[in-house]
Write a structure and sequence with these properties.
Elements (H helix, E strand, L loop, with lengths): L13 H29 L21 E7 L13 H5 L30 E4 L4 E4 L3 H4 L5 E8 L5 H10 L9 H9 L9 E5 L25 E2 L18 H19 L6 H23 L7 H6 L8 H14 L5 E6 L11 H25 L6 E6 L3 E7 L3 E5 L3 E6 L7 E3 L1 E2 L6 E3 L2 E2 H11 L9 E3 L2 E3 L16
Parallel strand pairs: 1-7, 1-8, 4-12, 4-15, 5-6, 5-7
Antiparallel strand pairs: 2-3, 4-11, 8-11, 9-10, 13-14, 16-17
Length: 481
Amino acid sequence: MDVRTPHRVTPLTRRDWLLQAGVGFGALALTDLLARESGAAAESTPSSSIGRSAPWRRPATARSVIFLFLEGGPSHIDTFDPKPEVNRLAGQPLPPSFKPVITPMGEGRSPLLASQRKWKQHGQSGIWVSDWLPHIATCADDLAVIRSCWSNGLNHVGGVCQMNTGSTLAGRPSLGSWVTYGLGTENANLPAFVVMQDIPRATVAGGPRNWGTGFMPAVYQGTRFEGGPVPIANLSAPAEVGPARQRAKLELLDRLNRRHLASRFDQSELDARIKSYELAFRMQAEAPEAVDLARETAETRALYGLDQAATEPIGRLCLLARRLVERGVRFVQIYCGAGSKWDAHQDIEINHAKTCRAMDQPVAGLVQDLKRRGLLGQTLVLWGGEFGRTPMSEKGNGRDHNPYGFTMWMAGGGVKPGLVVGKTDEVGLHAIEDRLHVHDIHATILHALGVDHSKLIYRHQGRPERPTVNEGQVCHGLFQA
């Protein structure tokens, strides 16, 4: 029996005819989408004329993004934002003038906790970096440090969700999905959006929704790569299955899936699964080489810390991220400390000493390696968590969540190097100057990629949805003139 032929044919009702006709019109949109993705894949530079007629396109300063997400919330006042006033007032209650509008879990009653860090200015820019990050400190002149970030997420689930999707509530597309939707891919044989985490079995707060597509088609979601020596499971076909046989199997599966999809056209997950099989087949040719870190020199592997047990997990992912962006992957997100390992409600000295040690050399190695290969100028590197931490103590020797003011930094991708933007108050609790909300940060990232966040629209139930939830302003001061 030919699987392309139904078992029996029944006359179409008027309702069925209109339904199938509607599906046919939907194919026109799909054809246009595929054409745009093919056009994006053919671009040799961000300023290529292909696709510039799209209303959301503008001249780009970056082609790719690597987002180093420190899940759990690193303490800004112990890393990039020194606050001598915290140490001067240590042991005393938070002065009334600094009380937050909505208090974190500690409710402001706990005394201020002194920072035990030693601080030094680095590079010609004189950016302050603590002794917890000696390797990143050597990259100070490549960084644009933003000390005035703020968000709405008081807890990890809401905070991580907002930093990824713009909303503290689930249901919106992730930033990487918006990038994929707006720009397509530069390499049809690799995913456009890749997500990795240093602790494979850890659960990121909120789960896969952080790299999901919300109300957009599932085809734009992030593709999970694993840590360890085999980043992509089940990629290689058995030795007895050759390319022709594999292609025939895929074509049969495609026919069965599309027949199943015909009456379920509103389930984008089915369409995404069909496309994932096609992508997996193409990846079997190119991905093994892309993820083979053994091709790197011993010097490069040591630069990322692959020769040390403490730094190897994140070092491996950072090196893999570099290999992916140089092969055209648009958006790579690495969860450093997956499972909220930066969450230091107690024993912050022990917690942050360990997490900084694991991340510092690999991240510095990534920036240095991109720079020496001529890739930093076209790759925007973003570092930060879902929020910072309070100057008040919790449980005697820890710090609570602080979404009111915290630090992130960017490097490359047209960002002005050796720059400090904004500031927090004297104890590091509130952002008070040049404040950048999560929506502003997202707008700025999209701006670097050549996307106008106010014009990139996906219509959901008749409503024009935008990646920055109809808010956000680009921080133009971050970019070189």
